[in-house]
Amino acid sequence: MRTSSWIVLLLASLACAAGCSKTSSGPSRATGNSYVAAAAFWNPTGNATIWRTELLFDGKVIGAANFNPPGSAAELSGTIEGVKKGTHTLSIRIASQTSSPTTYEVIYAMIVPVMSGNETYEFGSVQRSVATGESIGYSFEF
Hints:
By secondary structure, the protein is mainly β. It has a single domain, classed as Lipoxygenase-1, CATH 2.60.60. The protein is 12% helix and 56% strand. Strands 1, 4, 6, 7 and 8 form a 5-stranded antiparallel β-sheet that branches. Strands 3-2-5-9 form a 4-stranded antiparallel β-sheet, with no helix packed on it.
């Protein structure tokens, strides 16, 4: 296994150990609560193509990572305050990369409550070719 993939898988395992014990189709009580969103992805070829990537919740940047030199994997997180019931989107945007389009694989994407009482929301792994400025997104209901 390549070093970069080992690191990404280790980070995914640690993140799940910290807050993935419960899963559901969405948090049971979301009004007025705070959550942490997190995601990790990589270039499965191992090539370092990522200059900048952003984590968005409903189109707003809540986390970002810059690489110099470019990276082959990224882990992003950000806090979401006052989440209301309704339809939402969690997205990973490739803001800048060395070649476009490039195929990336999302290792994990999740939303975890800051305080107990709500369930963790996990999204499935996906592999997709993404051009610069495009996103890999997950739409869901709270």
